[in-house]
Amino acid sequence: MDTSSPSAIARLLFPKVPFLLKTALWHSLWLSPTTYNWDLRTELTIKLIRSLLDSPTPTTITKQQRSSLKDPGIKGPMWISKVTFPKPGEDDVLRAVINSIDALKQGEGAYTVPEIVPVEAEWTGYRFGVHASRPRLDLSEEQHYQRLMDEVKCNVTILYFHGGAYYLLDPASHRPTTSKLAKLTGGRCLSVRYRLSPQNAFPAALLDALVAYLSLLAPPPGSSHAAVSASDIVFSGDSAGGNLSICLLQLILQLHRSSGSSPPMVRFNGRNVEVSVPAGVTAHSGWMDLTRCMPSITDNTEYDYLPPPPSNDFIAHFPKCDIWPTDPPRGDLYCETSMLCHPLVSPLAARDWRGTCPILLQYGSEMLEDEGKAIARRVVQQGGIVKWEEWKAMPHCFAMLLEGLAGSKKCFESWAQFIKDVVEGNTIETSGRIIQPKTLEEHSLETRDLMNDLSDDEIDDRMREAMRRRDRGEEGEAKILPRL
Questions:
Q1: Interior angle at CA 428, CA 425 and CA 433, nearest 5
Q2: Do 103 and 254 touch, CB atoms closer than 8 A?
Q3: Taking phi first (over 0 means left), then psi (-120 to 50 degrees means alpha), and beta for anything else, what does residue 276 get?
Q4: Rounded Cα gap, residues 181 and 177, in angstroms
Q5: How many CB atoms are located within 10 Å of the residue 59 CB?
Q6: Cis omega (within 30 of 0) on the bond before 135?
Q7: 419, 187 in Cβ contact below 8 A?
Q8: Residue 206 to residues 114, 125, 336: CA-CA distances in angstroms?
Q9: Which residues share a beta bridge with 482?
Q10: Which listed site, 5, 19, 28, 474, has its alpha carbon 20 to 30 Å from 372?
Q11: Whether residue 309 has a cis bond before it, omega within 30° of 0
Q12: Whole-model pTM over 0.90
């Protein structure tokens, strides 16, 4: 799906004109089942995206990935300072990841040990009083960082992981989101360019995430930023980035479990660094189950744009390219099928949440909703603090996609307020709320009872059975087989 130029967008949309006209007519006549919950703009947007994703002629993974990585440029009310954190001289960070993976494995599970590499990222801040078309200043990256810091108003540092099913997008695509969070919190974001699959399978992205976190706690020599306290850092992400945020938290919790009564330490760039739990973690439409086994995957298709699981015929005719299928073949873009139920791949499989920081989970009426509910319930039942938000009739990552909606604005404000509260040390209590579409009327709910029709053991059984089906080749690639 090429959106790199106005002419490309026109070629893409022109064949959809009759479909859009029909959608608008049905909406106006109250014949669409979603009319009561969506305005016309939302209905056109979601149904257009759904029709594009459900194309019968998919493009290759290579083309999809390359198209998603085109940098739109930097302009308007944002400060961007690009940075590369060097490869640490020690391998302790890699051993910490591998030891945690092996400690949490249940049975056999294969994965390739990644190399430690330099990690790229973008510092993002809000640039006040600037028109949306204002070009970026011609300054060095160091000067951009200093100008960014001149406008930071508090200690908030958001370690952000972008979404994109672990094989698409990068910090450039998420600058509108990270700059908005920087504005609303008064802080700054460090948006990480972690390695993408299928070229870099699990746990490469998780290793990059840990290197980025340690680089905040203990800046490598020559860094622009000073050391940041863990109590000022919040992990945040959308979709696959929400997965990575929660997996990084689980990795840190495992390091604490393994270290016993003493805090976990990692040798990093010549220093012993304590790997502390951050102030908080947020996930917007987080992808918590790569086995896609929960009921909402099929039950919540009405309001989501993600297509349902593909047919065997579709899978058989999916175009090959240089990066997919892999050689030797792998059953999932992100990992070996034998690792799909690992807690650092699918956090839905994680049973132990003791010692966690407060967590904010935001979901629409989307295909991934049930997996978020199950995690919220499990964390709360173990004494953790969770703020659960259920935005009725909203699709995957709605607040980022439907920026003009009053509900999206409210969602971002809640997202930012949670981040400020955990960093400032304000009292955070477990809560759950349902927000209705259009009216934004709220109702409270008991988080301890979320997904109470499935026990933890039943969820584990569903995950393992889904993994076995994938391993036998009875189902295609996780979440959706990409159809862009």
A1: 150
A2: yes
A3: beta
A4: 6
A5: 18
A6: no
A7: yes
A8: 10, 24, 15
A9: none
A10: 474
A11: no
A12: yes
* Residue 35 amino acid letter: T
> Across the chain, which distance is largest between two alpha carbons, in Å?
68
- Locate 331 and state its tokens: 């059953």
Beta pairing class for 359-364 and 280-284? parallel
Helix (H, G, I), strand (E, B) or coil at 426: coil
Q: Compute the distance between CA of residue 438 and CA of residue 36 in angstroms, rounded to an integer.
A: 9
Q: Which helix (H) or strand (E) holds 280?
A: strand 280-284
Who contacts 458 (Cβ-Cβ below 8 Å, separation ≥6)?
none
Residue with tokens 């240089």: 322
pLDDT in tens, the chain (484 residues): 555 556 666 777 778 899 999 999 999 999 999 999 999 999 999 999 998 888 778 899 999 999 999 999 999 999 999 999 999 999 999 999 999 999 999 888 899 999 999 999 999 999 999 999 999 999 999 999 999 999 999 999 999 999 999 999 999 999 999 999 999 999 999 999 999 999 999 999 999 999 999 999 999 999 999 999 999 999 999 999 999 999 999 999 999 999 988 899 999 999 999 999 999 999 999 999 999 999 999 999 999 999 777 766 777 778 999 999 999 989 899 999 999 999 999 999 999 999 999 999 999 999 999 999 999 999 999 999 999 999 999 999 999 999 999 999 999 999 999 999 999 999 999 999 999 999 999 999 999 999 999 999 999 999 999 999 988 877 665 444 443 3
**Helices 92-104 and 240-259: angle between axes, nearest 10 degrees:** 90
| H helix or E strand, kind and range, residue 272 | strand 271-274
Please answer whether residues 175 and 124 qualify as being in contact, where contact means their C-beta atoms are separated by less than 8 angstroms. Answer: yes
Nearest to 481 by CA among 335, 305, 308, 239: 308
d(CA 375, CA 456) in angstroms, rounded, equals 10
Q: Which helix (H) or strand (E) holds 161?
A: strand 157-161
Residue 483 structure tokens: 């159809």
Q: Which amino acid is at 319?
A: P
How far apart are alpha carbons 427 and 255 in whole angstroms? 26
Q: Which two tokens stand for residue 306?
A: 């993600």
Please give the structure tokens belonging to residue 421: 């509260």
Which residue in the block uniquely carries the two structure tokens 């909606």?
A: 405
Q: Tokens 């340690």 identify what position?
A: 214
Cβ distance 315 to 268 under 8 Å?
A: no
Cα separation of the two ends of the chain: 6
